[in-house]
Amino acid sequence: MGMPFDRRTVLAGGVAATASLLATGPAAAATVSVLIDNAGHLDWKLTGDQKIAFDRRNGDGYFDVWLANSDGTGQADLTTGLVGFFGLPGKHTGCPAYHPAGDWIAFQAQKAVVPGYLDNLCVPGAGLLNDLWVVRQNGTGLKKIVNIPGGFLTDVNAILHPHFNHAGNKIFWAQRIAGSNTNDQGKWVLKIGNFNASNPQTISSPTTYDPFPGQDRFYESHGFSLDDQYVFFTVGTNTNYDIYRMKLSDGSLTNLTPSSDGVWDEHSILSPNGQKIVWVSSQGLTWTQDPFDLETEFWLMNADGSGKTQLTFFNTPGHAHRTAIGNPDFAACADSAWKSDGTQFIGLVITGEPDTPQRGTGPIVKVTLP
User: For domain 4-368, is the CATH number 3.90.226.10?
Assistant: First the structure.
């Protein structure tokens, strides 16, 4: 997700259903404060200066990757200055992810040849005709490492949400590889390629995983287990989104958020000690496909899927969390990243209306666990 309102035309059909609650514990009293306004997808560096990387829609209408200090100050555009003949195309750029050593940032960027009428499907949260790039935090070493098929007349390919493993020698992403047109959910797979932090190279032969072969399901990559033996990702259909864990050695699957139709679970991010997962869920809230409408909150669970607890209440009228973000008409929690000590995380709350220039954006909030 990240930007569900921009991806609504990539997902097919749609029905509305009543969500079923899965919580096994009482609602937690998390503390929420706004850290950065007008932002998008994000990551929080776990080492050194603990910078925050995030994407933001600039004045030209395109997203760029920005950096900020851990307290939200010192905000600076990283990728606009990299546009040029030998650099970035100058269109949508986003979904930043820090390498565990803290030097490299992986991100996705829209191809230069994409016609303007497809721009809204190429935003970071949709990923149509996006390639995978890396750059150092200081702006040097820019390199395209995955060049997906696609050109002016081809619109079936997409890339979403790169993530490095903890050893720093692999990178994980989701990729759309087939589909009849942009209104078709299409065929998605998961991919893992080798990454050399000393000298990044183009990834020519990544390993491809298709957890549900023969079925056209949406996949979104979320990250690795602490020992890098498992990956976490979302599996989506027209009526249900669930978070899975897959063992890389044999492809065995565990559904961490088994739920009835009408529930959207996504963006599972493992805590630094590997014990907890923060994710977003529409449980008890609204998700419709036509017209597309989605409300989600941040939840917390153990790494094995037990102990599910709702952390935020941005969609509850009168709640302090809703007041903190300005009492918007709706709120869709999305991407998140943990602080290195595991006591807090930062998360995107989408509040931008679908049909405005602010669509798919909102504040980055800091959530302190109880």
Answer: no
